User: What shape does this take?
Amino acid sequence: VARRGGIRSAVFDPGHGNRIEQRRRLDLALRRALTDGQFFLLFQPQVDLASGTMVGVEALVRWQHPEFGLVSPAEFVPLAEETGLIVGLGDWVLREACRQAAGWDWQGRLSVNVSAAQFRLGDVVGSVRAALESTGFPASRLDLEITETLFVDNDAGIVAALEQLQALGARIALDDFGTGYSSLSYLARLPIDKIKIDQSFVRGLPDPQREVIVETVLLMARRLGKLVIAEGVETDEQRRYLATVGCPIGQGYLFARPSAPEAIGLRSRQVDAA
Ligand code: C2E
Ligand code: CA
Ligand code: CA
Ligand code: CA
Assistant: This one.
C-alpha cells in the first residue's frame, strides 16, 4: 500500500541504519508525538438503523506529524503495541475521549478501543477509572472495544479485568467479530456485552454466504442476550438489509466517516453564565 510505504520510507529511511535503528526512530517519533500533542481524536457515529438516530460514537485516534502529515492508526498502533507506548497512548485516548464527550450536549454512548497490549502491559481498569473520575464522564455510557486476540492466552486475569470494568458500569464490545479463530465457544461464557460484526462481512453484502453469517450472528447474539452492531455499512442497500434482518445498530461511511465532533453535530454544552 502506497500510504504505508510513505510513512515507512519516511521514518524507516533505508539509507539510515538497520531495522533496529529505524524502529527506534519511529518509536522516538511516537513518544515525541505523545508529549508534543500530535495525536487527536476523530469520532464515527453508531446509528440506530430503525430510527436513524446517532446513539453512539467510536473514538478513533489520528497522528498529525509535522513532516509526514496525517498517519493512520493502522500504521502506528501496531508499533506502539510492540514498544509499549500503547499504554501511555491508550491512557491519553481514554482520558481525551471521555473529556470531550463529557462536554457534549448529547447523551449517547462513547466507544473506545483498548488493545490486548494495554491489558498485558498496563492497568486498564485503573486507567478507565482515572479517566472517568477526572472527566466526570459516566461509566454507564462507556463501551470498551476489545478484540478476540485478548483471549488467546486463556488468561484468568483478563476475564477478571473485564468483569471489573463491567462492575464500574462500562460495557465490553467485541470488535472485528468473525475474523478470529474461535469466535463461538467463548461468547457465551466471557464477559462480553456487545458484538461488532466485522466490516469484511458487511462490506460484501448483498451476498448469500455473508448473509448466512450475519443472520447467524444476530440469532446467536439475541439468544445470548448480547447487543449487536454492524461495522462498515457503506450503502443504503446494506443498511436496509441489516435493518430488515433485525440488526439494531450500524456504523460506516454511509452515515459518516470518522469526523471532528462539530461535523457530526456534537457541540459543547452551553455553560450557564449565571
Ligand atoms: P477498528 O477499531 O476496527 O475501527 C474501524 C475502522 O474502520 C476505522 O479505521 C474506520 O475509519 C474504518 N471504517 C469505518 N467505517 C467504514 C466503512 O464504512 N468502510 C471502510 N472501508 N472502513 C470503515 P481507522 O480509524 O483507520 O482505525 C483502524 C484501526 O486502528 C481500528 O480498527 C483500531 O483497531 C485501531 N485504532 C484506532 N484508534 C485506536 C485507539 O484509540 N486505540 C487503539 N488501541 N486502537 C485504535
Ligand atoms: Ca473498534
Ligand atoms: Ca472493527
Ligand atoms: Ca480492527
About this structure: The first strand starts at residue 39 and ends at 48.
